[in-house]
Amino acid sequence: MTENVLRRFARIDKSNITPAIVLAALCLILAVISPTFRTQDNLVNILQQVTINAIIAVGMTLVIFTGGVDLSVGSVLGLSGIVMGIMIVDNKMSPLIAVPVAIALGAACGFVNGILISKLKLQPMIATLAMMSMARGAALTLANGKTITGYSKEFTWIGQGTIPGTGIPVQIVLMLALYVGFYYLMKYRKTGRYIYAIGGNEEATRLSGINVVKYKTLTYTLAGTLAALASFVLVAKLNSAQPIAGQDYELDAIASAVIGGASLLGGSGNMWGTLMGAIIIGVIRNGLNLLNVSSNLQKLILGIIILIAILTDALRNRKRA
Amino acid sequence: MSEKYLVEMEDITVQFPGVLALDKVRFRAEPGKVHVLLGENGAGKSTIMKVLAGVNTDYEGRIRFKGEEIVARSIDEQRERGVSIIFQEMNLLKNLTVAENIFLGRQPTKASGGIDWTGMYRQARELLDSIHSDISEHALVSTLSVGQMQMVEIAKALSFRCDIIIMDEPTSALTEKEVDALFEIISKLKSQGVAIVYISHRLEEILRIGDWVTIFRDGKYIDTVTTEGLTTDRMVAMMVGREMTEYYPKVDVVPGQVMLEARNIVKGHRLKGVSFTARAGEITGFYGLMGAGRTELMRCVFGADPFDSGEVLVKGEQQQIKSCEHAKRLGIALLTEDRKNQGLILNFDVNTNISLANLAPAMGPLGISHSKENENNKVLVEAVRVKTPSLRQLVKNLSGGNQQKVVICKWLNTTADIIIFDEPTRGIDVGAKVEIYRIMNSLKEAGKAIIVASSELTECMGISDRIYVMHEGEVTGLIEGPAMADLTEQAVVSYATGSHLHEPERQ
User: Fold this and answer.
1) What residues in B contact A320, CB-CB < 8 Å?
2) Mean pLDDT score of chain A, rounded to an integer?
3) What is the pTM of this model?
4) A17: which of A10, A223, A268, B223 fits an S-S bond (Cβ 3.0–4.6 Å)?
5) Is the pLDDT of residue A2 over 60?
């Protein structure tokens, strides 16, 4: 019955339902072998742990839809978190100013990536690798080795609070709202159409009279913006801004998109798949923790899972070609 | 077994994704004869020769070579057997010299094992001399004209010892002098007992040198006839399967205002100051050989590529067209020559491809309405008669003709009134071609300005109301008005090869 509903959903989206099935199977196995896993607390816990990656993965998915990739999101997250901390804690500025400024900074980093890639035709990998290093360097320099802590309750609400009267964590609501919004964008707005089209065939899209430079730049700008938004949630969650925050986050975000069915060649996949992908990664991490697998080994296992997802994508594309 | 034939190919079938490229065709070649393969683009002429040459190894059917049953597994193997092919597409490496290209991968060596450069250049010179070519063996291929490159390809093919030479449109970019030299070589090869397979669109030429003519249509074998007593009209009729007048339906429309005008467009050495006009209710043709600059010109006008200088006037107003987006807003559409890579998103469905250039008809109050989009596109698909099981069908699964119709739908979905078709029927079967010509005609009747750039001479002459002929980045001829009535292929070709520049014009 659930599968039926899922299939209908999937047909509407022209995508496969594999990520949802994988997720369901994973949950089933873990629920059987670990009594702790199936507690409500643990399930909410998983979603809370997933939010940061899931928010970054929204932007990453947009970029991947165009056939690109953004390696700088983790560093951009680190940088905007530090800038937020310096403004709020060191300079006693209002979060109402500091947060928008920090998010605008993330957007600016993304915009630079976008211009480098769409206008100056750099390889996405190379341009964002440079940005990754620059943003991290800036964060480390600005922080000067320290962690910035001490925020107001109003500020940390986004990462720690719940919606009044419901007990639902704010960050989960934010995450879901973003997915609904971007799902709508991709399915019902011109922008979404054009983003897919660019990934499907950039030259044909340009020759159809679509401003490819504009839309590509937009996706990278959104990726930067969403990374900065994730930094807001992260700083609030931890009550601390760290210059090394966000290291390796780009990998998790790419993995979420790919596990969710987005092709690294661009032009296919959907938002809801990425959310599934992000939750799958969260569930695997959670399960491995419950099974007392060391964090080093966890890294290895996740690496293998990412490899499998990418291989599946590559084989699928070979068949497609 | 009959030793009369050097090559006998029976029941050859080749399947390409979505298209049956060859359907149980046969072909035979006798030594010392010129066998012409005749058919339109996409008829399967090149495909069957690629089978024989070992380029296309995925085929069904039997091949008998010198009386022995063989399987064509690779180019090297077939070359070893004595099959040499001159490709239609240029396969030369541009950064190497002429001689290096001729002896690529098999350079003569000295006893020490090093390359015998002097020997290589000497042999290349001898080969070029044998075909009366004055191209320097030391010249870099990138500095040669398209015609000269073709001569190098021919020299390369001759450098192999062979029993059969396949020439796939060898003269398409040659000047008349070069063509004469080539025909002399062919006669010499014939007298040596070499079989020649000759693929060409130039009908007059076929009558001059051919012994046998084999006609293919739509991947099917039609007939093999002797050239004795054959006429060009008869050849065309066999090629297209119907009479010319039916094939190129003409409608008479009184042309309106000038919709598009270009003045002195210059782009590097590809376009050297090209001017033209295109009027409403008229089909303006551009004919030229490969490298003549047709495609470059169209791309510049459409804003796809920047150009160095020149003016473009749209509906009488001067415009600085900066991008395709801008051109589209001005009402210009370009249906690119490379449909698969530039015209369509192959992995997307028919619906999405049609809506790409204009989503306005699909917009509802809450954004894209998929039902409105379906409705709108369904009307277009039916009007243009795209054969597709549904709007959800992926475009890559459609035939070439239907793919082209999807591109046409895409632009009919916009407000474009200047529509440029670049090689509109390349790789499309005969039936679909006629339909596309009819669509062009109905657009013309609707008062749109139609531009057709084509390298297919019969098509360009058949469909256009006036023709610009281009050669190496320049307009070398404009045929319009009464002159269109008694236009000959030869006249157009002489403009297109630039030979009218050197020789007195013939009637």
Assistant:
1) 347
2) 92
3) 0.81
4) A10
5) no
